[in-house]
Amino acid sequence: MSIMRIGRAEIKVLDLEQSVDYYTNVIGLDVVGSSEGKVYLKAWDEFDHHSLILQEADSAGLDHVAFKVESEEDLAHFEKKVEQFGLTLKRISKGTRLAEGEAIRFELPTGHQMELYCDIKQLGTRTGNLNPHPWPEGLRGIAPHRLDHLLLTGDDVENVTRFFTEALDLHQSEKITTVDGETMIGSFMHARNGKPHDIAFIKGPDKKLHHAAFQVDNWYDVLKAADILSRNDVQIEVTPTRHGITRGETVYFFDPSGNRNEAFASGYITYQDFPTITWTEDKIGQGIFYHRRELIESFGKALT
Predict the structure, then answer these.
(1) Widest pairwise Cα distance in the chain
(2) Is the pLDDT of residue 1 over 70?
(3) Catalytic residues
């Protein structure tokens, strides 16, 4: 029984037309479908029908995050595990969203809505899977390979970590604790797939989105992403730098609705038998921004 990876996020935006223009021409995603008040997108290197849904709404933020499991049997297995943990869930019917089968939906201890699913139509990548070139012609914008991870905020970081590690069998790669080690204030977890994280939580207000991250190849692509953002007058929050946590390379910026995005590269490879790396609160600046070694005020306050 296994959860494979983060599969999709549904993000609320204020102006759907403006947001579609941004996510296609600046981020570089492809539109694959639409329904009333929603547009579905994918990155060029993703096989599944979509990884991002834009939902027009009165306020920005996260509607839900979803992880993909391998089979219907896995979905039934995790449905029981979610119930045993004490979370209330409901079934989402096939066809509720484009190209998707059934899913289960539940509320995390941090108040965020989450789904698990396995059935989704595959469109394939733009390079195909027969003698493919490394990248396709005609890429636009930053052109990430995939939706990589989400960082969310909530008050009960310890309990939400316990849910992901005990009920969903994710592995915690890194954590941030108070200096005395008694309280966890940050948690980074992956679906035992070698990535530094598929999802992360930092202590803060419940139900909030900190950022949605898109994966690019390397440091040069992070720098190129910053150039593209500047050319398009996108608000950049943090210019290219390195994380201590995950060792990834990064640039942070905002979509037209104020949702924070990240272009994320590199990061280490980790495995389920690796011990969890611990950062203490007094070193959180270095953990997040390894070069400047201090946080900026907006990074903890600009949430949607």
Answers:
(1) 54
(2) no
(3) 149, 197, 211, 243, 252, 262
